[in-house]
Amino acid sequence: MKNIVRLRYLWFAISILVIVPGAVFFAMFGLKTGIDFAGGALWDLHFPTKQLSELNTETIGAVFSKNGFDAAQVQLSTVKVNGVNVSSAVIRTKELSAVNPEAQQRAVVDALTAIYGTVEREALQSVGPTVSAEATRSAAIAVLGACVAILLYLTIAFRTAPNPIRYGICALLAMLHDVLVVLGMAAILGYVIGLEIDAYFLTALLTVISFSVHDTIVVFDRIRENVNHRRSGESFEDIVNHSIVQTLPRSINTQLTSVFSLTALLLFGGATIRNLVVILLIGLLSGTYSSIFNASQLLVVWENHEWRTWFRKQAA
């Protein structure tokens, strides 16, 4: 495809079609919060007859899942009991049932005993969320501060190009596109398959933001170079299209290596990091799309002042 910019309103329409369903699900159902946000119970179990290498986090997590504790977080370790090393598992789950918690505890311990032999429950306590509302607010403030820093940096970095502040604002709009896509898809997947957001989700979201801005800067840098060496009679739209075509193979090849790695982790990395990998994959694909088909196209719309044409047509 040689003239990508000419189809800019098609690319905008595709972005809207992707964002709107997610926004509807987000407004209606919100995000399904995991243990890190909602709090839960902390189990401390000992396996005196088993070596640590004989324990498996996925097997233990599956036992808890079958007994009503989905998305249990299992951490294995070795502790000393009366001077002897004992294999231990600390499991973080949602709260126990208020109706019959003792029966839930017995069912879990009996199921694990059938697999691993003797299981000793050392402690079971209620715990608060590891990601509090205050921590979430702090993360949001940090992201806003990063947005201001990105805007200032890009304005200074592209000062040799005409209207350098436009590059910073368009990069932030593309980043906002990726955030909305990730939040919307998380809301949809939470409703459809029960995907829960946890501390990994915040990590993935911040990583997606950095991916998005990085890829956008690569395209913008080529646009700046071509603008500074533009030929007589060459329009800004032609320059942007030429720049995208030049950087397109690099962008796709670079992102494909990450996609292949994340796909391998998704297939073979286990359930513990599955949600993290899914969000990273969605954000990576969205970031690649937005840097090529949104951010650069917004520069053209701004340069041509095309919103004036929109209002003129509407008035007519």
Account of the protein in words:
The protein is α+β, with helices and mostly antiparallel strands. The chain folds into two domains: 215 residues, Multidrug efflux transporter AcrB transmembrane fold, CATH 1.20.1640; 88 residues, Alpha-Beta Plaits, CATH 3.30.70. A four-stranded antiparallel β-sheet has the order 2-3-1-4. β2 and β3 form a beta hairpin. It is elongated. The chain starts with 7 loop residues before the first helix and ends with a helix.
Topology, please?
Elements: H1 8-29, H2 35-38, E1 40-47, H3 57-66, E2 73-81, E3 84-93, H4 101-116, E4 120-127, H5 133-157, H6 164-192, H7 199-228, H8 236-268, H9 274-304, H10 306-315
Helix pairs in contact: 1-6, 1-9, 5-6, 5-7, 6-7, 6-9, 7-8, 7-9, 8-9
Main beta sheet strand tally, sense and closure: 4 strands, antiparallel
CATH class of the largest domain: Mainly Alpha
Radius of gyration: 25 Å
What name is given to the CATH topology of the largest domain?
Multidrug efflux transporter AcrB transmembrane fold
Q: Helical proportion?
A: 55-70%
Strand content: 5-15%
Shape, please?
Answer: elongated
Output the structural class. alpha+beta
Number of strands: 4
- Strand neighbour order, sheet with most strands: 2-3-1-4
Low-confidence segments, given as residue ranges, are none
| Mean pLDDT over all positions | 86
Q: Could you name the CATH homologous superfamily of the largest domain?
A: Multidrug efflux transporter AcrB transmembrane domain
How are helices and strands ordered from N to C? HHEHEEHEHHHHHH
The CATH architecture term of the largest domain is Up-down Bundle
Total number of domains: 2
State the helix count.
10
- How widely separated are the two ends? 34 Å
